[in-house]
Amino acid sequence: MGAEPKNVVPVALIAPYAGMADLAGEIRGEFEKPIRIEVGDLMEGVRKGNDLAARGVEVVISRGGTALLLKKHLQLPI
Q1: What string of H, E and C letters represents the secondary structure of the chain?
Q2: What is the reported pTM?
Q3: 4-25 pLDDT tens trace
């Protein structure tokens, strides 16, 4: 038996609060590629970013302090 294939979503957005995640969810359908949306501020965002990277995400969108920390801790385009 082989490993289960990953359900890879190439782009993820890590929002610092639920309201921003909700707004992103409303416009997600306007993009060509699927976008996974997570809520996580600062180090919680880094934890989620590491998890997303392990699942095959190729690009992470974030802002502010969370984006700075993600750039420092991940080897992905932020």
Answers
A1: CCCCCCCCCCEEEEECCHHHHHHHHHHHHHCCCCEEEEECCCHHHHHHHHHHHHCCCCEEECCHHHHHHHHHHCCCCC
A2: 0.86
A3: 445 678 999 999 999 999 999 9
